[in-house]
Design goal:
Elements (H helix, E strand, L loop, with lengths): L2 H5 L20 H25 L3 E8 L5 H8 L8 E5 L14 H4 L8 E5 L8 H4 L20 H20 L2 E9 L2 H13 L9 H5 L4 H15 L6 E5 L3 H16 L12 H4 L2 H9 L3
Parallel strand pairs: 1-3, 1-4, 2-3, 4-5
Helix pairs in contact: 2-10, 3-10
Length: 291
């Protein structure tokens, strides 16, 4: 089964018709074993890609609160060499970040060649949270937007194009851009929030916003559908991953990554220059004869 093809968003996206639980059964123990196996393959690929030094990966993860983004990142990338993966979490923009355009803080966090960078929440917050709460846009102090009434459909259409152009530019320069929406049901989110509230050791994870934002659930679903449809391209695709079962969500996510890496058949170890390769025996002899 190609997980990449199965979960890639194509055409019109209707989240209400997509599963939040996978349509196959697998025990949690087996899912963990399969994830470990896939993660090891990904780790080996990353080391090869680091040596090849021509590609990098930008992994963008979006989802409603409690969708499991943090734990997914921890479990999927735990086999990676620490130098091979960087995680960037984007929260409310700082005063410094607001002195620049909304994409600036994402540009400066892009991956170096040979590395994976994971955006935990991404530049898409600027067409999701800002769409549900358009007053946030006023903090950007845009010359053409001095009141909420100026933030119309044309404004959002331009922003979708800007984001698409941003990602196309990255793709043209060797960055593999993959975008994931962790598709959580409203009922499962409620269970997870209640679990946080029910155990003192998990209280630190709770924020009142988690409950307040549930009032905008349908708005978020609508805007996720729109942004996925408007910004999914062949070069920079979206994947909608069922997220009600954390173990299976992680396994599917990692399997999609593995499917993509297996298509990069040109990634290989670089050849040593002839003047070095022809003298390897001399270097070895010199080291062995050291006193």
């Amino acid at each position: 089964m190609s997980f990449e093809n199965k979960y890639k968003a194509t055409g019109k996206t209707e989240l209400g018709k997509l599963d939040t639980v996978p349509d196959f059964e697998m025990s949690p123990k087996k899912a963990i074993r399969k994830l470990d196996e896939v993660s090891r393959h990904l780790s080996k690929f990353q080391e090869l890609m680091y040596a090849h030094n021509r590609y990098s990966f930008l992994i963008c993860i979006q989802g409603m609160d409690t969708a499991g983004k943090d734990s997914l990142i921890r479990e999927v990338f735990k086999s990676f060499n620490a130098r091979g993966v960087v995680v960037q979490s984007f929260k409310k923009p700082t005063s410094t970040e607001l002195e620049h355009d909304y994409l600036w803080r994402h540009y400066v966090a892009l991956p170096e060649k040979g590395k994976f960078t994971v955006f935990n929440r991404t530049h898409y917050e600027n067409v999701l949270v800002s769409r549900v709460h358009p007053e946030i846009i006023l903090n950007e102090r845009l010359p053409q937007v001095t009141e909420i009434e100026a933030i119309d459909d044309e404004f959002w259409g331009k922003r979708y194009k800007e984001i698409t152009n941003f990602e196309t530019h990255l793709s043209n320069n060797g960055v593999i851009v993959l975008k994931f929406f962790l598709h959580l049901s409203k009922d499962e989110q409620k269970r997870r929030i209640l679990r946080r509230l029910g155990k003192e050791k998990h209280h630190w994870k709770f924020a009142p916003e988690d409950v307040r934002e549930r009032e905008y659930w349908e708005d978020y679903q609508k805007y996720y559908e729109e942004c996925i449809e408007k910004t999914a391209t062949e070069e920079c695709p979206w994947y909608v991953i069922p997220a009600d079962n954390k173990a299976l969500c992680r396994y599917i996510f990692a399997s999609v990554l593995l499917d993509v890496t297996q298509r990069l058949t040109d990634v290989s170890l670089p050849e040593l220059p002839d003047h070095i390769k022809d003298n390897l025996s001399k270097y070895r002899e010199r080291l062995l004869n050291e006193k």
